[in-house]
Amino acid sequence: MKKLEGLLQGRQLKAILFDLDGTLIDSVPDLAAALDTSLAQLNYPSAGLERTRSWVGNGARKLIQRALSFVLEVPESAVSNELIDQLQSVFFDHYGQKTCDHTVVYPGVMAALSAWHKQGVKMACVTNKPARFSRPILTHFAMDEFMPVLVGGDTLAVRKPDPAPLLLACEQLGVSAENVVMVGDSVNDVQAARAAGMPVACVSYGYNHGAPIASASPDLLVDCFSMLLAN
Ligand SMILES: O=C(O)COP(=O)(O)O
Ligand SMILES: [Mg+2]
C-alpha cells in the first residue's frame, strides 16, 4: 500500500479506482475471438489477437470502428455509423455469450485486492467496457466482493478520458477524489485521472493504443500488479 499512498503526498489513501481491460484482466483472447467470429459472419477477413490487443481501451464502439478501418483499408473516420452499428450488434451477441472463456486475471491482482480490502481501502472498477459485460466478469472472477461499485463505458453519456466516470465512482464509494488513486493501463486512464485531480499509477503490460504507456507519464509505472503493494 505504501507505493500508492506515496502518490498522495501525505493525504490518506481511502480508495483505489481500477481500469478493467489490460489492468485487472487480460480479456483480449475472448474479445478477439468474438471479433473474428463477427467479422467472418459479415464476410470480412479476421483481425487476430495482436491487432485486437492494440484496439482495446476506448470502448467497444471504437474497437469495432478500428476493426472495420483495418478490414476495409480506409481511415477510421471513413467508416460509416451504419456499418459500425451492424458489426457491433453481431459482436455484442458473440461476446456476451463468451466473456470469460479465455480471459484471465493478471498475476498478483487477487492477492493485492484482498490485501487492500483487509486494510479497509475501498475499491471500484471504472472501465470503458459496457456494464452489461463488465459486471458478469467481475462476478465470474469474484472481484465484485472487493469492488461493489462499477462504472461502465455506457453508465454515463461520457467515458474515460472524461473524468466524470471516476468522479461518479468516488461519489458512490463516499470518498473525496483527493484521497483516491487511479490504476490503469492506457492514456485514457492517465488523462481521466488528471482531469479528476487524482494521481495515477499504470501497469506496463496492458493495452495502450499506439504508444508505450510510459509516454503518457503516469505518476507511477509498474511491470507487475503486485508492485503496487510493495514498500
Ligand atoms: O475499451 C474497452 O472496452 C475496455 O476498456 P478499459 O481498459 O477501460 O477496461
Ligand atoms: Mg484498460
Layout of strands and helices, then pairs:
Elements: H1 2-6, E1 15-18, E2 25-26, H2 28-41, H3 49-55, H4 60-72, H5 81-97, E3 104-105, H6 109-118, E4 122-126, H7 131-140, E5 149-151, H8 164-173, E6 180-184, H9 187-196, E7 200-203, E8 220-222
Parallel strand pairs: 1-4, 1-6, 4-5, 6-7, 7-8
Antiparallel strand pairs: 2-3
Bound molecules: 2-phosphoglycolic acid and magnesium ion.
The site of 2-phosphoglycolic acid (PGA) has 15 residues, from loops.
How many β strands by DSSP?
A: 8
CATH H level of the largest domain: which superfamily?
HAD superfamily/HAD-like
The share of residues in helices is 40-55%
User: From the 3D coordinates, which CATH architecture of the largest domain would you assign?
Assistant: 3-Layer(aba) Sandwich
**Helix and strand sequence:** HEEHHHHEHEHEHEHEE
Count of helical segments? Answer: 9
Secondary structure class reads alpha/beta
User: What is the spatial order of strands in the main beta sheet?
Assistant: 5-4-1-6-7-8
The small-molecule ligands in this entry are: 2-phosphoglycolic acid, magnesium ion
Q: Approximately what portion of the residues adopt beta-strand conformation?
A: 5-15%
CATH level 3 topology of the largest domain: Rossmann fold
GO cellular component, one term: cytosol
Active site: 19 (nucleophile)
Catalytic activity: 2-phosphoglycolate + H2O = glycolate + phosphate
Pathway: Organic acid metabolism; glycolate biosynthesis; glycolate from 2-phosphoglycolate: step 1/1
Explain this structure to me?
The active site is at 19 (nucleophile). This is Phosphoglycolate phosphatase. It catalyses: 2-phosphoglycolate + H2O = glycolate + phosphate. The protein has helices spanning 2-6, 28-41, 49-55, 60-72, 81-97, 109-118, 131-140, 164-173, 187-196, and strands at residues 15-18, 25-26, 104-105, 122-126, 149-151, 180-184, 200-203, 220-222. The protein has 231 residues and is α/β, with parallel strands linked by helices. The strands form two sheets. It has a six-stranded parallel sheet with strand order 5-4-1-6-7-8, sandwiched between helices. α9 (187-196) links the parallel β6 (180-184) and β7. α2 packs across α5 (81-97). The chain is globular and about 55 Å long. Bound molecules: 2-phosphoglycolic acid (PGA) and magnesium ion (MG).
